[in-house]
Design goal:
The protein is of the alpha/beta class. The protein contains ten helices and 14 strands. A hairpin with a 2-residue loop joins strand 1 and strand 2. The radius of gyration is 19 Å and the shape is globular. The structure holds fe (ii) ion.
Length: 278
């Protein structure tokens, strides 16, 4: 079982910094010593139900769902292999830190699209070879290096178009954009055989963070994790992130599978019922 990306301490810290609060302000409003809050954020203090309730109130989290995380009562149900037969999960790592990339396959046309690199071009290229498919697109969800590591290797070894979110300036191609690289705008559509892939910009973790949707899948990068969200870069970004996730992702059919950049696969329904940020 793939562990959840965030522990309760991470959830509390993301919500606190997302709201622009210091540990002192948060502890005072929640009626607890700062030292206890600091321990909670370091995951070295297990919250009581009462502490979870008061922190949830101060941080606008859902207290029942937060306490469920404290008790470790929830993990998204493992999808059946049949349900995801056209997706390959590439689990890469940077030391002990895990990062996910994904390959979506259209069996009829033999075309594939990758979402991020999993920081491991070899694993991606090996999977393409094993499945006997041609990489038509490599879409980046955002340009943090754990998601783009190995990009050059994939770029050189395939003829894939490399789709980079328009709002991500950090990839650093300079003035001259290499052949095959294109920028992805919000609500653009791409074809993979009979499948359609649509881009949905969910800014907040980074300015251009983009999810890629098919009829029943969402490749979410670092916007939404099972039971948590990506770290926002400012309080405005945090507000936008939660709003966009609520209105554009959690409003989808509950059966839509979500494939995050870190942690296990989940569904819209699981996140509606268990994610303490909503
Ligand atoms: Fe990231």
């Amino acid at each position: 079982m793939v562990p959840l990306e965030d522990e309760v301490g991470d959830i509390i810290r993301k919500a606190r910094t997302g709201l622009g609060l210091t540990t002192g302000q948060t502890a005072e409003r929640a009626g607890m010593p700062v030292s206890v809050l600091e321990e909670i954020e370091l995951c070295s203090h297990t919250l009581s139900q009462e502490e979870a309730g008061s922190l949830a109130k101060v941080l606008s989290l859902n207290s029942a769902k937060l306490y469920e995380s404290v008790m470790g009562l929830w993990h998204p149900e493992e999808p059946s292999p049949d349900a995801l037969s056209d997706v390959v999960i590439i689990e890469g790592s940077i030391g002990a830190y895990k990062v996910n990339g994904y390959i979506l396959i259209d069996k009829a046309s033999g075309e594939a699209a990758a979402f991020d690199t999993a920081n491991d071009s070899k694993k991606v290229l090996d999977a393409l070879q094993e499945k006997g498919v041609r990489l038509k697109y490599l879409f980046l969800t955002h340009c943090h290096t754990d998601h783009t590591g190995g990009l050059e290797g994939i770029f050189k070894a395939t003829e894939a178009g490399i789709g980079i979110p328009e709002g991500e300036a950090s990839i650093g191609f300079g003035k001259e954009i290499p052949r095959g690289v294109f920028y992805v705008k919000d609500d653009s559509e791409f074809s993979l055989g009979q499948k359609k892939i649509r881009s949905v910009v969910i800014a907040g973790h980074t300015q251009g963070s983009t999810c890629y949707m098919t009829r029943n899948y969402c490749f979410s990068g670092d916007t939404l994790f099972a039971g948590s969200v990506g770290r926002a870069y400012s309080p405005e970004a945090y507000r936008d992130l939660l709003h966009s996730l609520q209105t554009r992702i959690l409003a989808l059919n509950e059966g839509v599978y979500i494939f995050p950049g870190h942690g296990p696969v989940t569904t819209v329904g699981e996140e509606i019922r268990h994610n303490p940020f909503f």
